[in-house]
Amino acid sequence: MIQSGYYMTKFSLKNKVGRLLWQLVWVFFGRLSPTPFHRWRAWLLRAFGAKVGSGVHVYPGVKIWAPWNLEIGDGTGIGNGVTLYCQGRIILGRRAVISQGAHLCGGTHDYTRVDFPLVVGDIEVGDTAWVAAEAFVHPGIKIGEGAILGARGVAVKDLEPWAIYSGNPCKFIKKRIYEAD
Fold first, then answer.
1. pTM of structure
2. In principle, which of 70, 87, 128, 165 could form an S-S bond with 106, CB 3.0–4.6 Å?
3. Backbone angles phi, psi at 151, to 5 degrees
4. 150 vs 46, 101, 140, CA distance in Å?
5. 1: three-class secondary structure by DSSP
6. For the chain, counts of helices (H) and of strands (E)
7. Which pLDDT score is estimated for 3?
8. What are phi and psi of 29, to 5 degrees?
């Protein structure tokens, strides 16, 4: 179940220490690992609570804020320079592609309040969906199965399944026709 728009108060000491430990481990054992060591990086993610399917390709240049809030389906690829800012949960379906430089942002702030409280929203990317290079996905967004968010597109509302979107904010371009092998 995807949650959208819930307030977070302060992060616990356990959360802060966990993120610090994760960052240290990722810098020395994830980012510095050779590119083909996808299984190794998947193992590191699992060791920190991520749910990671088989055949996943997480490249060494990926930035992940809190892996315990991350689920990655079988056969999914996450390119170098991707930021997974999982303040809320980020769920990536099977065979999804998150291209270089994309940013999935699970948190924002309520600008209508003087104290700017953190607002967290879960993000879901459906099976066989593609978030193209340097695209941005706002908190609480669901990208439907087979949908494409074009390069540098900005998703501010849910994307329907099997459709192509582009622009800032992204707009529907056309239906995606999928040809099976």
1. 0.92
2. 87
3. -50, 130
4. 30, 12, 19
5. coil
6. 2, 20
7. 58
8. -115, -15
Query: What is the model's pLDDT at position 173?
Result: 98
CA 133 vs CA 28, 120, 141, 179: distances in Å: 26, 24, 18, 22
- Of 89, 26, 95, 30, the closest CA to residue 56 belongs to 95
pLDDT, averaged across the chain: 94
d(CA 69, CA 22): 13
H helical segments located in the chain: 13-25, 38-47
How many whole angstroms separate alpha carbon 79 and alpha carbon 161? 22
User: What 3-state class would DSSP assign to 30?
Assistant: helix
Q: What is the pLDDT of residues 98-136, one digit of tens each?
A: 999 999 999 999 999 998 899 999 999 999 999 999 999
What phi-psi label fits residue 68: left (phi over 0), alpha (psi between -120 and 50 degrees) or beta?
A: alpha
pLDDT tens digits, 13-63: 999 999 999 999 999 999 999 999 999 999 999 999 999 999 999 999 999
| Measured distance CA(61)–CA(58) in Å, rounded | 8
Domains detected in the chain: 6-175 (2.160.10.10)
Instruction: List beta partners, residue 125.
Output: 92, 143
Kindly list the distances between the CA atom of residue 153 and the CA atoms of 77, 92, 119, 131, 168, in Å, as whole numbers in the listed order. 19, 18, 22, 9, 6
